[in-house]
Amino acid sequence: MTSGSAHGGDGTTTVSVHGLGYVGLPTAALFANNGCTVYGIDTQPDKLETLRTEGADFRESELNDYVDRVLGTDALRLRERPVQSDYHLVCVPTPFDHERGAADLSYVRAAAEGIAPKLRPGDTVIVESTVPPGTTANVVGETLERNGDLLRETFNLAFCPETVLPGSILDELRGNDRIVGGIDGEATAAARDLFADAVDGDIHTAPDAATAEFAKLAQNTHRDANIAIANELAKVARDHGVVPRPAFDLANEHPRVDLLHPGPGVGGHCLPVDPLYLGQHSDHVQLIEHARAVNDGMVEYVQELLGDALGSLAGKRVAVFGLAYKGNVADTRNSPARRFVETLAEPTAKVATDGGESAVDVRVHDPHVTDAAVDLWSESAALAGADALVFMTDHDEFTGLDPEAVVERMDDNVVVDARGLTDESWHEAGLDVRRL
Ligand SMILES: NC(=O)c1ccc[n+]([C@@H]2O[C@H](COP(=O)([O-])OP(=O)(O)OC[C@H]3O[C@@H](n4cnc5c(N)ncnc54)[C@H](O)[C@@H]3O)[C@@H](O)[C@H]2O)c1
Ligand SMILES: CC(=O)N[C@@H]1[C@@H](OP(=O)(O)OP(=O)(O)OC[C@H]2O[C@@H](n3ccc(=O)[nH]c3=O)[C@H](O)[C@@H]2O)O[C@H](CO)[C@@H](O)[C@@H]1O
C-alpha cells in the first residue's frame, strides 16, 4: 500500500526519524532541508536538550551547519515519543551481543513498538539500522502488527541501508546511491519515492527487504575481508624481509589487483560487527570469520613488533600517536588503537616485570580525540623521553612530523609505523623504524 502524499517541497510530507545518532540526525536534516516536515525522535531527553541548546556536534563543520539550519525550526521538531507521520525511519543502534552470538535487536523492537500505535493505513516504515537478513520482514513486521491495529497489508515496510562514510557524512548522505527493498513492490516504491526526492545518487531497488539487508552486510564484509588480506600479506611480507607497502604498490600496478592498506586492525561502528550478522542463520561463514580474526589479531602483532624492537617492554616509555579508529575522525569506537593502549598498560605476562606489575609508561597523543576515559598528552609531552613512538592512526597532523625533531625529543630511537606514515627520511634521521 503506497502513501498518496506528495514528497518534499512544501512541508506536507511528514517524516519521523527514530534515533538521532550518527545516522539519524543527518538523515533528519536531509529530509528537513528538502522540504519535509520532520520529527526527530530520541529516547534520551538529555540528547534532545543538548541539541536544542548547543546544536549538532559532528567533527564536520558543514554537517553541523546543515543540521543547525533546520534544528529548532518547524522543519525539524524534536520529540521524545513517536508521533503520526507518513514515513517512519528507524535509525536506532543494533549492537552485536557477543555472548549470544547474535545482533541485539532490542532497540529496533522498542522503536517498532512505539511506532505501531501511531501507524495509519498507507504510512511507510523504513529500517535504516544495519540488521541481519530477514529482520525487517519478520522482527519489525511482526512487532508492528502485534502492537498496533493494522494488518501488514495496510502499511508499507521497507529496508534502506545507510552507507555514509564517517568523516564525509554530508557529501555521502546526499551523494551516495541508495538501495531500497520493500516487503512488496508498493513498499519498495514508497521508500524509493522518498529518497529519490532527497538524494542526488541513484536509487537501486532490491527484489525484497532481505536482499537489501544482505547487500548492506555484503558491502562491509567485502571491505573487512579485503583489509584482512592486506594485513595477512603484510605479516607474510615481513617474514620474507620485504617491506609491505612498496611491495603492495608494485602489486597494484596490475589492472585487476587492488590491495588495500595494512594497518593495526579494523575499528569503527560497522566493519568489526556487520560481518558477524551473516553468521547468525548460516553455517557457511568461514573466510569471513577468519578475516575478522586476522584483523582483530593485528593489535597483538603491532605489540610484537614493538617488543622485538625494544627487547623488553618493561620499564619503557611508549608514545602512541592516534587513538581514533581511523585518520581525521574523533571516533574511538572499537578502535584498535584503544585496545592497543589498554593492553600495553595492563600487567600482562608479556610486558610484566618480575614483580608482575605493568611497567610500560604509555603516553597517548591524538589531536582529534577528546576522550575522558584515556589521558591524552600533547605531541611534545608524549614524545619527551620516549623509548618508542607507535603510529596507530593516520591523522593528517602526523604526516607533517619532522623526524629530526622527533628523535631529538626521544630517549631511544624505535618507531613502529602501523599506518605507513614514515619514509626514508625517518631512517636517515637515525630512527629504527618497523613498518607495516
Ligand atoms: N555510524 C555509522 O557510521 C553507521 C553507518 C551506517 C549504518 N549504521 C547503522 O545505523 C544504526 C544507528 O547507528 P548510529 O551510529 O547512528 O547509532 P548511535 O548510537 O549514534 O545513535 C542511535 C540513537 O538512537 C537512540 N535510540 C535508541 N532507542 C531508541 C528508540 N526506541 N527510539 C528512538 N531513539 C532511540 C539513542 O538514544 C541514540 O541517540 C546502527 O544499526 C548502525 O549499525 C551506522
Ligand atoms: C563498505 C564501506 O566502505 N563501508 C563504510 C564503513 O565506514 P568505516 O569508517 O568503518 O570504513 P573504513 O574507512 O574502511 O574504516 C574501517 C577501518 O578499517 C581500517 N582500514 C581501512 C582501509 C584500509 O585500507 N585499511 C584499514 O586498515 C580503518 O583504519 C578503520 O579502522 O562502514 C560504514 C558503516 O556501515 C559505511 O557506512 C561506510 O560506507
From TrEMBL:
Xref: InterPro entries: 6-PGluconate_DH-like_C_sf, NAD(P)-bd_dom_sf, UDP-Glc/GDP-Man, UDP-Glc/GDP-Man_DH_C, UDP-Glc/GDP-Man_DH_C_sf, UDP-Glc/GDP-Man_DH_dimer, UDP-Glc/GDP-Man_DH_N, UDP_ManNAc/GlcNAc_DH
Catalytic activity: UDP-N-acetyl-alpha-D-mannosamine + 2 NAD(+) + H2O = UDP-N-acetyl-alpha-D-mannosaminouronate + 2 NADH + 3 H(+)
Highest taxon in the source lineage: Archaea
Keywords: NAD, Oxidoreductase
SUPFAM superfamilies (alphabetical): 6-phosphogluconate dehydrogenase C-terminal domain-like (SSF48179), NAD(P)-binding Rossmann-fold domains (SSF51735), UDP-glucose/GDP-mannose dehydrogenase C-terminal domain (SSF52413)
Family to which this protein belongs: Belongs to the UDP-glucose/GDP-mannose dehydrogenase family.
NCBIfam families noted in UniProt: NDP-sugDHase
Protein name: UDP-N-acetyl-D-mannosamine dehydrogenase
